[in-house]
């Protein structure tokens, strides 16, 4: 991390950490200081906005009812029910809606209604000054990885990588237990609970224990952000990645990007979540598995690596606190990730 980046991030985080209700994390020497927005309390307000793809008011009703059952109030953003082709309104409309939620002191968390594509088109239009003074949780995954990475790189403020409104089932009576459990994990994360996860051991895992700030998200988005003002800083951190709908050769190329940009060399640990690989029936077989692709890139490094972690474009997609310190333990018969 460049010295100016460390200073800017640390100064902003230190200023925010001095405010009531904010959590300041113990960090190892040389690590950036991160702060977490305050935990939500009963009757706190959550804003729902569509910074990427469009979504209707009807499609978010299940999420609204569930979050209200948790004791929270909901504010529906102006981009809900708006549509500009694939987007939830024009770039200007989506940026304005998100900015209003960043600046509104009554809103304690911002839930992205859905993913798709669009955050990278508005990220440079946003002003974070009021947010730095009074941080709030930003919630989402997939395209919302842009927010998580931007906060990691520039502000040192924690956020929540989790399911969004379009993942809430319409009929809870027939929802799978894992679907319910992962959605309920959002409430736990927002309410200040210490998060604790377990993953099924994989024979390809690399055993070990690591402690560090957790950061990551959608692999394609991380590749897209390389070299930009929102480029993720992975040094000294535990990185998690996931993706969907990519050919294996594309996944290989993206992991080469992580390696060649130095993002794998200074990690404390690597978590590989769900990867739904697209099959190209008209092309020659790439000849490598996901395990092959990953292990080839990290064979020179000694940190723990786990596969099949419950995060990604899948039902078992738990809420993860980006920017919060965790302990990763990978052994032959056990894999855990604990907030510390």
Explain what this protein looks like in three dimensions.
The chain is α/β, with parallel strands linked by helices and 340 residues long. It has two domains: 3-190, Rossmann fold, CATH 3.40.50.10740; 196-339, LD-carboxypeptidase A C-terminal domain-like (Glucose Oxidase, domain 1). 29% of the residues lie in helices and 23% in strands. The protein contains ten helices and 15 strands. The chain is globular and about 50 Å long. The two termini are 23 Å apart.
What secondary-structure arrangement, pairings included, does this model have?
Layout: H1 3-17, E1 23-24, E2 35-36, E3 45-49, H2 61-69, E4 73-76, H3 91-103, E5 107-112, H4 119-122, H5 129-133, E6 137-139, H6 145-154, E7 159-161, H7 177-190, E8 196-199, E9 208-218, H8 219-225, E10 237-247, H9 248-260, E11 269-278, H10 290-298, E12 305-306, E13 320-322, E14 325-331, E15 334-339
Task: Please tag this protein with its features.
alpha/beta; 7-stranded mixed sheet; Glucose Oxidase, domain 1; 340 residues; 15 strands; 4-stranded parallel sheet; Rossmann fold; 2 domains
């Amino acid at each position: 991390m460049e010295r100016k980046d460390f200073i800017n991030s640390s100064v902003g985080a230190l200023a925010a950490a001095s405010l009531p209700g904010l959590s300041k994390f113990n960090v190892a020497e040389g690590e950036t200081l991160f702060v977490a927005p305050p935990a939500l309390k009963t009757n706190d307000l959550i804003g729902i906005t569509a910074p990427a793809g469009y979504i209707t008011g009807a499609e978010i009703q299940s999420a609204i009812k569930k979050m209200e059952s948790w004791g929270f109030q909901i504010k529906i953003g102006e981009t809900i029910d708006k549509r500009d082709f694939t987007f939830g309104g024009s770039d200007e409309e989506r940026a304005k809606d998100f900015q209003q939620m960043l600046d509104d002191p009554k809103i304690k968390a911002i839930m992205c209604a859905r993913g798709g594509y669009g955050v990278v088109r508005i990220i440079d239009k946003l002003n974070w000054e009021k947010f730095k003074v009074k941080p709030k949780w930003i919630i989402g995954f997939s395209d919302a990885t842009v927010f998580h990475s931007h906060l990691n790189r520039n502000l040192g403020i924690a956020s929540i990588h989790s399911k969004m409104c379009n993942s809430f089932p319409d009929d809870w009576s027939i929802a799978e237990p894992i679907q319910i459990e992962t959605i309920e994990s959002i409430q736990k994360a927002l309410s200040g609970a210490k998060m604790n996860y377990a993953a099924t051991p994989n024979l390809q895992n690399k055993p070990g224990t690591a402690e560090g700030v957790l950061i990551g998200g959608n692999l394609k988005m991380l590749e897209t952000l390389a070299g930009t003002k929102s480029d993720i800083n992975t040094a000294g951190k535990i990185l998690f990645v996931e993706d969907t709908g990519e050919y294996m050769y594309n996944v290989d190329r993206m992991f080469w990007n992580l390696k060649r940009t130095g993002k794998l060399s200074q990690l404390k640990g690597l978590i590989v979540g769900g990867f739904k690989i697209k099959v190209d029936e008209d092309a020659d077989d790439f000849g490598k598995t996901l395990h092959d692709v990953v292990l080839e890139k990290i064979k020179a490094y000694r940190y723990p690596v786990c596969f099949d972690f419950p995060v990604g474009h899948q039902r078992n997609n738990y809420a993860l606190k980006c920017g919060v310190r965790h302990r990763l333990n990978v052994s032959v018969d056990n894999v855990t990730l604990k907030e510390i």
